[in-house]
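Contributing new records

If you add data, match the layout below exactly. Sequence lines come first and carry their own label; structure lines follow with theirs. Keep one chain per record. Anything else will be rejected by the validation script.
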Amino acid sequence: MISELKTSDHHFQKLFDKHNNLDEKINRLEQHPAEFSQELHTMKQEKLALKDELFKILQKHDK
């Protein structure tokens, strides 16, 4: 279903890409967490919010 939504739902694709980009940035920053702790925390919160929104879209299309 994710693959289908990535091609048919522009909003979902945009959120999905943003989530993946944040994940990559977080992984890089986690290698030096003391230097970027506040930025890392903020990114993790944003990533979680995106994940929640993506899940809501998936649930809506799964019905």
